């Protein structure tokens, strides 16, 4: 457990613990010095060095040491936290890059991944807080208890008996709180989403135009208050009970102080001891108990986080993710879908039902069908992002998911409908698919030129290829939708893969412009295989083979002419869309 949390930061942990042992000692020392200051002043009746002055100077020195220790603790905790953040962050980000893509599609595992990524900073602060609080409190408590036992041992017993219920109910309340937290986390995620919906750059134009801010704002506050109420209710009752026991302790302490008045009056107890004992008891009930409740809460947060973290770390990885290996052989003879059935883990229905087809190394394939017929799912399986529930997706006889990532990226490049608009330089935007050639501007210009002379795009940017794109960066240049699309296409072409996959990247432009883009793409990708998904059929004439999908089944296969002759679903779709292409 300790190794799991601390890794190679044990030295910081030990120094912080040491500082807090010293900090802990200052508390009973304070009480002791107060007793001495009062008693020497009262007993000797005169002030001076060797009497109460010495103790007062000691007291001053102790305050200075306390401040120094607190500051060092703060500084070291920051360094400790930063180091933990980098260590853990690296592991967490590497793991999230390796886990199978399907977990991002499943609600439960996505929630776990989200909780880990968004909660690990808070838990790191938790670890540093616990390290210093536990050491400090343990030492000061023992010190204070020792002082009390030396003077009036029965007070120690009374405090101990009234302490256990406080700790017990704190543990119960905090256990409940975190279990409920996991249950109500979906509300938190939803609230985050809704807040982003009215604040993000993508949606802000529609928010202004349709003025739906109030509606979403209402939904957001409803969902968030469900989350908050859940959090509050989960620990309210046991927390009140713990609070009631703290009050009981205050009452007990008050009674004890009344009881001490008698020996004080009789001269059986010095004023110094009386004041010091009272301070020790108030300290214990007031500060320590609340601190201990906080520690219990933080330890429990860590317990739940560790559980999540274990689940996260145990998520299956792509067998070949991030592996090295021979990536030179980028050619393939054929890719084959062999009786592929697929069902998303969240649902019981198959979205692909016995899909069979193959792609040879210079073939152009079009997948067509209505929305929801399973086209994108086929693409995710083709790229090895998802694995078939039954059947196989094979590249030259090898399951695609077993192919090393370095090699897989040489085989496939892809442009999705919701292609990414990376807020980094144009050079990086294009070269992300093949970073070894990030300085090959000649190739970038060649590719951009092949896409309707888009090299102009670079000339118009103030720093050429090094211009930062997007509005998220200060001084960044935003591009038009079409220009972003060009950049995404250029990225796919730059990877020099042997098969280009296009999942409706042109859905945002008009049908005639779409045909033009496909024309350019296909001529730029000469001698390569290409798979393109579309529900608009103007570009399908370019394909060697067209597959029509209907509810997860391939119902037609052939060239455009063959399918038109067949007069089935494809022909019907084509005839409906014909007028889009009439000039
Ligand atoms: P298309 O690309 O043809 O529009 P998809 O492959 O995106 O179709 O979707 C096929 C079916 O799978 C649809 O019924 C859709 O609702 C369902 N589906 C898609 N993604 C998921 C997911 N992550 N979880 C559950 N069902 C999904």
TrEMBL record:
The chain crosses the membrane at residues 12-33, 53-70, 124-148, 154-175, 240-262. PROSITE patterns: ABC_TM1F (PS50929), ABC_TRANSPORTER_2 (PS50893). Keywords: ATP-binding, Membrane, Nucleotide-binding, Transmembrane, Transmembrane helix. This is ABC transporter related protein. It comes from the Bacteria. Its main location: membrane. It is found in: Cell membrane. Residues 14-289 form the ABC transmembrane type-1 domain.
């Amino acid at each position: 457990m300790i190794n799991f949390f601390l890794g190679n930061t044990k030295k910081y942990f030990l120094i912080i613990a040491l500082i807090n042992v010293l900090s802990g000692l200052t508390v009973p020392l304070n009480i002791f010095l107060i007793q001495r200051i009062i008693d020497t002043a009262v007993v000797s009746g005169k002030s001076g060095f060797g009497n109460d002055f010495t103790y007062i100077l000691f007291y001053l020195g102790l305050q200075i040491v306390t401040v120094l220790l607190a500051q060092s603790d703060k500084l070291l905790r920051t360094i400790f936290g930063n180091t933990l953040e980098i260590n853990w962050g690296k592991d967490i980000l590497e793991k999230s890059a390796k886990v199978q893509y399907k977990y991002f599609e499943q609600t439960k595992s996505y929630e776990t991944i989200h909780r880990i990524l968004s909660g690990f900073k808070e838990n790191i602060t938790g670890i540093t807080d616990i390290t210093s609080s536990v050491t400090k409190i343990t030492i000061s408590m023992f010190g204070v208890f020792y002082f009390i036992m030396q003077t009036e041992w029965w007070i120690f017993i009374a405090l101990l008996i009234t302490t256990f219920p406080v700790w017990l109910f704190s543990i119960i309340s905090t256990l409940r709180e975190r279990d409920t937290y996991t249950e109500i986390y979906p509300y938190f995620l939803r609230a985050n989403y809704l807040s982003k919906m009215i604040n993000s750059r993508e949606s802000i134009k529609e928010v202004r135009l349709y003025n739906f801010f109030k509606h979403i704002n209402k939904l957001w506050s409803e969902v968030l208050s469900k989350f908050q109420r859940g959090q509050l209710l989960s620990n309210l009752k046991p927390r009140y009970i713990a609070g009631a026991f703290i009050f009981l302790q205050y009452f007990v302490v008050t009674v004890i102080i009344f009881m001490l008045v008698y020996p004080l009056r009789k001269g059986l107890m010095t004023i110094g001891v009386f004041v010091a004992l009272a301070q020790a008891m108030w300290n214990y009930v007031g500060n320590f108990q609340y601190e201990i409740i906080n520690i219990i809460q933080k330890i429990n947060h860590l317990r739940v986080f560790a559980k999540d973290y274990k689940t996260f770390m145990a998520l299956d990885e792509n067998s070949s993710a991030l592996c090295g290996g021979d990536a030179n052989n980028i050619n393939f003879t054929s890719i084959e879908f062999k009786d592929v059935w697929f069902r998303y883990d969240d649902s019981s229905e198959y979205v692909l039902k016995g899909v069979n087809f193959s792609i040879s190394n210079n073939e152009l394939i079009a997948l067509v069908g209505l929305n929801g017929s399973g086209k994108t799912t086929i693409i995710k399986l083709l790229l090895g992002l998802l694995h078939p529930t039954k059947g196989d997706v094979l590249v030259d006889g090898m399951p695609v998911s077993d192919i090393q990532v370095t090699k897989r990226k040489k085989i496939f490049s892809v442009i999705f409908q919701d292609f990414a608009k990376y807020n980094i330089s144009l050079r990086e935007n294009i070269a992300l698919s093949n970073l070894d050639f990030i300085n090959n501007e000649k190739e970038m210009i060649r590719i951009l030129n092949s896409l309707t002379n888009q090299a102009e795009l670079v000339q118009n940017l103030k720093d050429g290829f090094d211009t930062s794109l997007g509005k998220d960066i200060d001084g960044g240049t935003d591009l038009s939708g079409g220009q972003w699309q060009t950049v995404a296409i250029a990225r796919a072409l730059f990877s020099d893969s042997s098969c280009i996959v296009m999942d409706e990247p042109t859905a945002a432009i008009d049908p005639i412009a779409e045909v033009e883009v496909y024309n350019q793409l296909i001529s730029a990708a000469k001698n390569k295989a290409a798979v393109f998904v579309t529900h608009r059929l103007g570009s399908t004439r370019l394909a060697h083979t067209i597959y029509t999908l209907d509810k997860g089944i391939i119902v037609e296969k052939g060239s455009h002419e063959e399918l038109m002759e067949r007069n089935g679903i494809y022909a019907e779709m084509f005839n409906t869309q014909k007028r889009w292409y009439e000039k």
